[in-house]
UniProtKB/TrEMBL annotation:
PROSITE patterns: CARRIER. Coiled coil: none annotated. This is Carrier domain-containing protein. InterPro entries: ACP-like_sf (IPR036736), PP-bd_ACP (IPR009081). Residues 9-84 form the Carrier domain. The lineage of its organism: Bacteria, Bacillati, Actinomycetota, Actinomycetes, Pseudonocardiales. It comes from Amycolatopsis decaplanina DSM 44594.
Length: 87
C-alpha cells in the first residue's frame, strides 16, 4: 500500500469516527481535513471520545500531554502514520 493510500484510508477512518462522536455538532458543517476541531464547536468530551475511538480502532496510544496539537484530521493522520509501522 502506498503512503498516500494509507493516508487517505486513515483520513476516512478518522472522519467516520469523528461523525460517530460529534455527529450532532458537525451535521450542518463541512469539516475539511485541516478544520480545527475547536472551531467546529466540538466539546472536550467529544474530543476525548474521538481519541478513545481512534486508540481502540487503530490499537495505538495517544499521549495527550505530549500531543496537545492534535486538533485536525490531518494532524491526527500525520501523528498516526508516524506511530503505526507500515503494514
Amino acid at each position: 500500500m502506498h503512503a498516500e493510500d494509507a493516508r487517505a484510508e486513515l483520513r476516512q477512518q478518522i472522519f467516520s469516527l469523528l461523525t460517530e462522536v460529534a455527529g450532532g455538532v458537525l451535521e450542518n458543517q463541512t469539516i475539511e481535513a485541516d478544520t480545527e476541531f475547536p472551531e467546529t464547536g466540538m466539546s472536550s468530551i467529544e474530543y476525548l471520545a474521538l481519541i478513545e475511538k481512534i486508540e481502540t480502532k487503530l490499537d495505538v496510544f495517544i499521549d495527550l500531554e505530549e500531543n496537545e496539537d492534535l486538533t485536525t484530521v490531518d494532524k491526527f493522520c500525520d501523528y498516526l502514520l508516524e506511530q503505526v509501522p507500515s503494514a
